Amino acid sequence: MYALVDCNSFFCAVERVFHPGLRGKPVCVLSNNDGCIVALTPEAKALGLRRGVPLYQVEDIVRHGQVRVFSSNMYLYAAMSKRVVSILRQSVQAVENYSIDECFCDLRGYERHYDLTELMRTIAERVQRWTDIPVSVGVAPSKTLAKIGSKFAKQYAGYRGVCTIDTDEKRRRALALFDLGDVWGVGRSTLERLHQLGIHTPLAFADQTERWVRAHFSKPVVQTWRELNGVPCIDTAEVVRNQTICTSRSFGQMVGDLPSLRASVATFAASCASKLRGQRAGARQLTVFICSNRFREDLPQYSAAESTLLVVPTADTIEITTAALQLLDRIYRPGILYKKSGVILSDIADMRQVQQDLFDPIRNRPQRARLMQAIDQINQRYGLKTARLAVEGEAQEAWRTKSVHRSPNYLTNLADILVV
Fold first, then answer.
1. 105 - beta bridge partners?
2. What positions carry a catalytic annotation?
3. Which residues contact 38 (CB under 8 A, 6 or more apart)?
4. How far, in Å, are 74, 267, 399 from residue 258 at the CA level?
5. Pick from 278, 288, 410: which is nearest to 344 by CA?
6. Predicted local distance difference test score (pLDDT) of residue 240
7. Cβ neighbours of residue 225 closer than 8 Å, sequence gap 6 or more
8. By CB neighbour count within 10 A (0-12 exposed, 13-18 middle, 19+ buried), where does 211 fall?
9. 165: alpha, beta or left, given left = phi > 0 and alpha = psi -120 to 50?
10. Residues of the chain below pLDDT 50
11. What residues have CB less than 8 Å from 420, skipping those under 6 apart?
């Protein structure tokens, strides 16, 4: 059996932890540049607000409904996520941190000694007592069914936070009631194909034969079908390495000068390189793109992208940033106000199996690798961007993401520690 522990309205729940007066009141968290709603509480949904809606379109509802609005603060959310995961790992031996607000717990063997529903209910109560983050738990023989169970636990208070799907009768009832489009592994194109074939519920899909599923779909959909029938076959414990890594942002203010663009591209390149090192991977292809604001038809429009192949796969911040800035110099056009830039790394390989190049211009790669490791350790201990390249610029530059409503970093910055 597996359990999925899902934090309810996680971003909003974290904000409420440090603003207790907001309990029971509508709260929303915004996307980059305070653009769209990305998380909201049930109280905000009751006012008619929805995820993905631009803030400017619902300003009247926000104002009249006295909705408290926050800018995204991923440092704060990540710190709280680590606390939740830590509690789960004290309670269950095998815990996989699937996303910032979801964890899978491997409960195989626990059924011999525990009532799994009561065990997970106790753990959920512990998480809320120690962190003030409410969670919903689904328990089932496969991870896909566990995700479905967590949705029911979140929707219906009668489950008291834990929905267990441990019999075939419960499985069929859950699949009959669940939305096919919300099934983990069923994307938009798969959903359209299923509808064309006359399949409109997860139960109808699960009742098909494996031969029929294999005749119409690829291996991932077959795995989803097996999971819906209670056969675990999706191994999420081994994190699948990203085939591409992209870091990009819309600017807080449009910029036209090359130094500002260079600072943004250098920052995004460093972020991509750091993610690569976290995967113990390296990238061989690098792409840089810039574009103007397509919604400003009164301004000149321009967008461009340029790619290059690196000599060998690398996660070296200096090497990647240098190449990225060279690409930027090629595509930059003066006289344009730019709204966005980005860096994409692809052709990603495991750094433990890298084919070297006889004509590699960098002769001290082992020393450079140790330098990158030292920088990562400094940033992990003293805060992100404590050690960075000078070309990345300062935190107050105009292109930086706008975040007017951001909370302090209570858990990661000594200057922001909560004063009571």
1. 3, 95
2. 102
3. 11, 29, 30, 31, 51, 52, 72
4. 28, 14, 12
5. 288
6. 45
7. 205, 206, 208, 210, 213, 217
8. exposed
9. beta
10. 237-240
11. none
**Cα 149 to Cα 231: distance, rounded to the nearest angstrom:** 15
Task: Residue 385: count other Cβ atoms within 10 Å of its Cβ.
Answer: 13
Dihedral sign, Cα of residue 340, residue 377, residue 386, residue 98: positive
Enumerate the β-bridge partners of residue 287.
307, 344
Q: Both tokens of residue 117?
A: 């529903």
First to last CA, the chain: 43
Question: How far apart are alpha carbons 213 and 211 in whole angstroms?
Answer: 5
Residue 344, classed as helix, strand or coil, is strand
Tell me the pairing of strands 135-140 and 303-314.
Answer: unpaired
Burial 318-337 (b: 16+ CB within 10 A, else e): bbbbebbbebbeebbeeebb
78, two tokens: 């990540």
Q: What is the pLDDT of residue 141?
A: 93
Residue among 190, 139, 187, 142 at smallest CA distance from 161: 139
Distances (CA, A) of 25 to 37, 53, 263: 16, 19, 40
Hey, what are 257's tokens?
A: 């000068």
d(CA 157, CA 261): 50
Structure tokens at 395: 């935190």
Q: Tell how far CA 270 is from the center of its chain.
A: 18
Residue 183, C-beta contacts closer than 8 angstroms, at least 6 positions apart: 144, 148, 202, 205, 224, 228
Alpha helices in 312-408 (DSSP H): 317-331, 365-382
Residue 33 CA to residue 228 CA, distance in Å, equals 39
CB 316 within 8 A of CB 270: no
**pLDDT reported for residue 238:** 44
Neighbouring C-beta atoms of residue 21, cutoff 10 Å: 8
The CA distances from residue 275 to 213, 234, 244, in Å, are 36, 24, 11
Residues in the chain: 420
Res 236: pLDDT: 63
